[in-house]
Each structure stands twice: as structure tokens, then as C-alpha cells.
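Re: [ENG-882] Designed sequences occasionally contain unexpected residues at chain ends

Forwarding the minimal case from QA. C-alpha cells:
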């Protein structure tokens, strides 16, 4: 009884906050209003695309990109891993573009099944996940739940549809661990993950491939390399360092052996979305099944210290930095993508360098936080990334 009361209170609070933000809210069951809305939406005759994690950073940009080609329906559980107000702000923008984001958890088999009955999804873009490497030290089970249980639930719902929708899903460069073979190629082994996050992402690839081979599905896994840009994630270094620089706070910079700075293959969001789009349009129901994996990176290595110098120039602030050994964080030393396979098969050709990409990110950051993101700003002021 007490549990039910607590649930009603939580749902009541989140219901009102979500309503004021125009996000569709259904917890546990689709309401009649939502059903009608979805039926209208899914009757518009276009191909129908379900995006999981649509209120997330990449899901938001992908939803906007696909809005002209598909009837897009989004689901997201709006969890509080980072400020929910940022996810709501993204969902509001999607709403303004006619894209509805349903509050649903991908581990909810009944709700997903109902959704698949209302809409005839031709494609699914599966981006929902517990992201981040360091948070696994605090909440390991969130990775198992969203990345493994959530993926299996989605696959279980998808497999009973005829035809089974084409699936494109997010994997990660982290599956390569601390591989010494640089750049990372899809043909390399990926069986020594350096974090629980990476282990769940690699498991997701293997589980999805298994479903493809048993049920004749088409799926494409995309190994994204450190994605950044406008509407990005506050738990990631670029946004977190920008906030700290502006507040004159100390930046914690992970270092490896011999005090070497970590390096990343930073990839601008528009390039990633182009790669996602090409994956969706080149996927097919080939026999007996299709399972593809592509690296989506920029293929240039950028030292984190250099990234900080660009941010210093953009913000006009001098960084105060504290260097900490990466130790048990699960952060790898270096990432660099071999993108030749994506280039040949998808026509993937990233075009944004780190200087231009960071300038665009910072321009959004100033505009959003100074003029529009009042709620987010308040929530962000209390947020401390792991
Ligand atoms: N951003 C990167 O640099 C990067 C790099 C490699 C891989 N990826 C992968 O790309 C995908 C998208 O990443 P992102 O950067 O947009 O992250 P994000 O955290 O902004 O987006 C993920 C979204 O999924 C939602 N979600 C999580 N668990 C869910 C569940 N059980 N049910 C429904 N929704 C759930 C979250 O609320 C969030 O809005 C993820 O799968 C991530 O692992 C991202």
C-alpha cells in the first residue's frame, strides 16, 4: 500500500512537470489520448521510425534529421543520470517539430508491445542506454538493466512483427578497450573491455547478432567515437569543462602513464547523424540475415589538453587544472577510428574539425544557457558529474 502511494506521488509530480513541457507522459500504460495521437501520427503514410532514447543527445539530433522522411515516434524514460530538464528541453523542441516523445522504459515489454501494435514501425533506431564509463562504479545495475535487459526486451517485441523492422543501434568505441592496434578497426578483436559500460555495449552487439541469425533480422551496430556538439551531454568532458571554466572551477583531467594526457577521436554530432542516416538507408532484409558493425568516428586524434586550450580561447578563461591518474575509472588512453569500412559501405565522410565543432558547441552553449535554458541552468548548478 505504502509502495503504491509512493509510486502515485512520484508519478503525480513527474506528470505535472512533464505536461507543462508538452511531453507526452504515459507511465506503465498508454492513455487513450496518446493512443489517438499515435494512431493519427502513424497513419500519415510515411515510413515509421521508432527512436529509443529520443530525449537524449544523439536521439534528439537524429529525430530532427529524420522528421521529413519518417513518422518519428520517440521513447525515453527521462531518467535522472544527468539533469532531466535538459532532456525535457530537447523533447520540447522535438514537440515543436511534431515529434512526440513518450515517457516509456524499454524494459517495459507490455508498453512496447502496445506501441508496436499502434504503429507499423518499418525502422527502429535504438539509442537508449545507460551511457558514461565512470558512473558504473556508482550504479552498475543501471547498465545491465538499460543496455542488456532493455535491448533484449526491444528485440523480443520486434521479432514478432511482420516484417520485422530494420534495426540500427548504438554501440561504442569503448568496446575496443585499451587496444594497442591503432586505429581501431571493426575487424579487430573486441573482447577486453576496460569498463562495465563497454562490456554491456559489446554484449548488446553479440545479443543483437544472435537475434539476427535466429530470426532473420537486419541490424546495424554503430560504434560511436566521443560525440560532441550543441545539446550535448553534461556528464562528458566538453560540457563539463566549459561549465567549470566559466565558473573558474578546477578541471579534473585524467592522465595515463608518464603523465600523458588522454586522447580522443572527437566526432561532431552532424557527422554522426549523417552516418546514422546512411546506415538506415543502406540496411536491407538480405537473406538469411544482416548484421553489420561500423565505426563512426572522425578518425583524428585530439589530445584532451589541446581540447581544453580551444575551450580556453572560446571562453576567454584560463583553466586551472588538476591532473589525476585515470586509475580505475575505466577511461581508456586513446581512441582513433578506422573509418574505411563506413566510408566504402555508407559513403561516410566526416567533415567537421575540432576547432569548428567546438566553436559551434560554444555558440549554442552561450545562447542556450544565457537566454533560454533557465530551468536547466538551475538544475545544472547542482549537478556534479561522476
Ligand atoms: N555520446 C557519445 O559520445 C556516445 C559514444 C558512444 C556511444 N554512445 C551511445 O549512443 C547512444 C546515445 O547516447 P547519448 O550520448 O545520446 O546519451 P544520452 O544519455 O543523452 O541518451 C540516452 C537516452 O536514453 C534514455 N534511456 C536510458 N535508459 C533508458 C531506458 N531503460 N528506457 C528508455 N530510455 C532510456 C536516457 O534517458 C537518455 O535520454 C547510447 O546508446 C550511448 O551508449 C554515445
Amino acid at each position: 500500500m505504502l509502495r503504491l502511494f509512493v509510486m502515485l506521488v512520484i508519478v503525480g509530480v513527474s506528470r505535472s512537470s512533464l505536461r507543462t513541457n508538452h511531453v507526452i507522459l504515459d507511465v506503465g500504460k498508454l492513455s487513450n489520448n496518446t493512443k489517438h495521437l499515435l494512431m493519427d501520427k502513424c497513419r500519415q503514410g510515411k515510413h515509421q521510425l521508432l527512436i529509443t532514447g529520443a530525449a537524449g543527445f544523439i536521439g534528439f539530433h537524429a529525430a530532427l534529421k529524420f522528421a521529413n522522411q519518417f513518422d518519428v515516434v520517440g521513447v525515453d524514460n527521462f531518467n535522472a543520470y544527468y539533469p532531466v530538464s535538459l532532456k525535457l528541453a530537447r523533447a520540447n523542441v522535438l514537440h515543436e517539430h511534431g515529434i512526440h516523445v513518450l515517457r516509456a522504459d524499454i524494459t517495459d515489454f507490455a508498453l512496447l508491445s502496445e506501441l508496436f501494435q499502434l504503429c507499423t514501425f518499418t525502422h527502429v533506431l535504438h539509442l537508449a542506454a545507460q551511457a558514461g564509463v565512470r558512473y558504473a562504479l556508482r550504479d552498475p545495475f543501471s547498465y545491465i538493466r538499460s543496455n542488456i535487459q532493455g535491448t533484449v526486451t526491444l528485440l523480443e517485441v520486434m521479432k514478432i512483427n511482420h516484417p520485422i523492422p530494420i534495426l540500427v543501434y548504438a554501440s561504442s568505441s569503448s568496446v575496443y578497450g585499451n587496444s594497442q592496434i591503432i586505429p581501431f578497426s571493426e575487424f579487430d578483436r573486441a573482447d577486453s573491455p576496460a569498463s562495465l559500460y563497454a562490456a554491456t555495449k559489446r554484449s548488446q552487439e553479440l545479443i543483437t547478432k544472435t537475434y539476427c541469425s535466429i530470426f532473420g533480422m537486419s541490424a546495424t551496430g554503430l560504434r560511436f567515437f566521443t560525440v560532441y556538439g550543441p545539446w550535448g551531454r553534461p556528464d562528458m568532458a566538453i560540457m563539463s569543462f566549459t561549465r567549470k571554466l566559466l565558473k573558474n572551477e578546477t578541471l579534473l583531467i585524467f592522465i595515463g602513464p608518464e603523465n600523458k594526457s588522454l586522447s580522443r577521436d572527437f566526432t561532431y554530432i552532424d557527422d554522426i547523424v549523417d552516418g546514422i542516416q546512411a546506415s538506415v538507408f543502406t540496411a536491407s532484409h538480405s537473406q538469411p540475415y544482416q548484421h553489420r558493425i561500423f565505426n563512426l568516428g572522425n578518425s583524428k586524434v585530439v589530445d584532451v589538453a589541446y581540447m581544453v586550450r580551444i575551450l580556453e580561447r572560446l571562453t576567454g578563461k584560463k583553466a586551472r587544472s588538476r591532473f589525476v591518474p585515470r586509475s580505475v575509472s575505466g577511461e581508456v588512453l586513446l581512441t582513433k577510428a578506422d573509418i574505411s569500412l563506413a566510408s566504402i559501405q555508407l559513403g561516410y565522410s566526416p567533415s567537421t574539425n575540432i576547432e569548428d565543432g567546438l566553436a559551434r558547441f560554444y555558440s549554442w552553449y552561450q545562447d542556450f544557457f544565457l537566454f533560454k535554458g533557465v530551468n536547466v541552468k538551475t538544475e545544472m548548478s547542482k549537478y556534479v558529474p561522476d
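QA comment: On inspection the terminal residues look reasonable. The pocket of nicotinamide-adenine-dinucleotide is lined by residues 52-53, 55-59, 75-79, 87, 105-107, 127-131, 146, 150, 170, 172, 224, 226-227, 233 (CB under 6 Å). Proposing we downgrade this to a documentation issue.
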